[in-house]
Specification:
By secondary structure, the chain is an alpha/beta fold. It contains 10 helices and 9 strands. The chain has 2 domains: 184 residues, Vaccinia Virus protein VP39 (Rossmann fold, 3-Layer(aba) Sandwich); 83 residues, Adenine-specific Methyltransferase, domain 2 (Orthogonal Bundle), CATH 1.10.1020.10. The strands form 2 sheets. The protein has a 7-stranded mixed sheet with strand order 4-3-2-5-6-8-7, with helices on both faces. Helix 3 packs across helix 6. The structure holds S-adenosylmethionine (SAM). The site of S-adenosylmethionine has 21 residues, from loops.
Amino acid sequence: MSTKKVKLLKISEPQMGYSLDFGNTRVKAKPFIKWAGGKAQLLPQMSNLFPPKDQIGRYFEPFLGGGAVFFHLQPPKSFLSDSNHDLVELYQAVKNNVEELIHALKPHKNEPDYFYEVRAQKPAALSQIQKAARFIYLNKTCFNGLYRVNSKGEFNVPFGKYKNPAICDAEGLRAASMALKHATITNADYQSVLDKARPTDFIYFDPPYHPLSKTSSFTSYTSDRFGEGEQKELANVYRELANRGCFVMLSNSDTPLIREIYKDFNIYEIQATRAINSKPEGRGKITELLIINYYWATKRRLS
Ligand SMILES: C[S@@+](CC[C@H](N)C(=O)[O-])C[C@H]1O[C@@H](n2cnc3c(N)ncnc32)[C@H](O)[C@@H]1O
């Protein structure tokens, strides 16, 4: 762990009242896939803690997943990335070829035999658009919207038995495509942020969470492991960006390790409801942490 002293950044109130997010230019876009750890339900609690638009440079979200925070903020210039290659290809298709994607989604059916046929397809034999349509189709119709692959990289979540899943939400996809127009989307490890971020850029980290107990870990986004060593490495990256003068926000679970490695920063508690978790202790209301490296110059309530 780096021992360099941390400087917290001071933020002044925005000129016009409390408009803490990114203004009126937003289209009505939201995540177009279900994703474990999705932040949509937490946005009301998080939105008071985002730095104001008039004080930040560019936006980085390097653990993109479903991108709930990106779609909420819709900053003018963003760098979005994730280590899941198929997910990133999907975003690129939504951004660049949304009409072809909508067209390719239309024939997909919510039927078990058809689901297993599509699940058995080899993605390498499909075009980029067909792959993207298959990703959305499986995501909308599989059990709990989980993304899980076996050791050969084959998707292996069973059929979800939903009555009427929105397999092709054409309007939602078009809105997402518009919101993504000024975003650069790459398949990269989160550490690549270090090469690009400059003072006043805003970085939101939403890594795989540190497990609450040894048995409650949910780490099946990709085959990559995100253990204690990786959490500490991420805290070093966080600290380096903070010392560079970036605004940095990070979500994680409320565990002694996370409180310890971010103790030099501002730690807020928020209440979440866990939906995707097979262990009983992970369901229901649970406290999570939101960690920022800035503070407001004037006293204000951040609840
Ligand atoms: C908690 S999810 C993000 C959820 C997202 N904020 C949302 O609202 O849906 C974590 C994401 O990090 C990605 N990931 C895991 N390890 C990574 C790494 N080393 N670098 C970049 N992305 C990684 C996973 O593929 C997953 O999409």
